[in-house]
Amino acid sequence: MAQPGRTSLCSPHGRALGTARGRAGDGRTRKDPEGSSPPHCAACFGLPSHYLRHNLYATTSGVFSHAALLGAVQAIGADRLLFAVDYPYESTAEAVDFLRTAPFSRADLKRIAHRNAAHLLNL
């Protein structure tokens, strides 16, 4: 069976990713009442968390919590986060300051700030 085409999604407000990954079904299989897996699951090649980590990008917009940002990095990785500002509802200066003070390596901060977007958009 051939793997379906690769699709990437971009989700704003990455703060819910830790919860999404926890509810993604890793370690358990959902079955119908007769004990068989739903037919659409036959085409899946990995656990739901695999698809979250490899097919989803999230932005930092709306997030001014280092704990939430850390949860997003743990859920999908620093290479899947994109810096963004929810303008006009957020201050660009505050968002930049928030990212600059995040407890991540310089390399991860560069990825989040601009390298991930450049890669995703083929810039």
Please give the structural blueprint.
Layout: E1 9-11, H1 17-22, H2 48-55, E2 56-59, H3 66-76, E3 81-82, H4 92-100, H5 106-120
Parallel strand pairs: 1-2, 2-3
Detailed description of the structure:
With 123 residues, the protein is mainly α. The protein has five helices and three strands; from the N terminus they run E-H-H-E-H-E-H-H. The protein has helices at residues 17-22, 48-55, 66-76, 92-100, 106-120, and strands at residues 9-11, 56-59, 81-82. Strands 1-2-3 form a three-stranded parallel β-sheet. Strand 2 (56-59), helix 3 (66-76) and strand 3 form a beta-alpha-beta unit.
Radius of gyration: 17 Å
Q: Element order, helices and strands? A: EHHEHEHH
Q: Major beta sheet, specifics?
A: 3 strands, parallel
Estimate percent helicity.
25-40%
Strand order, largest beta sheet: 1-2-3
Which stretches are low in confidence, meaning pLDDT under 50 for 5 or more residues running? none
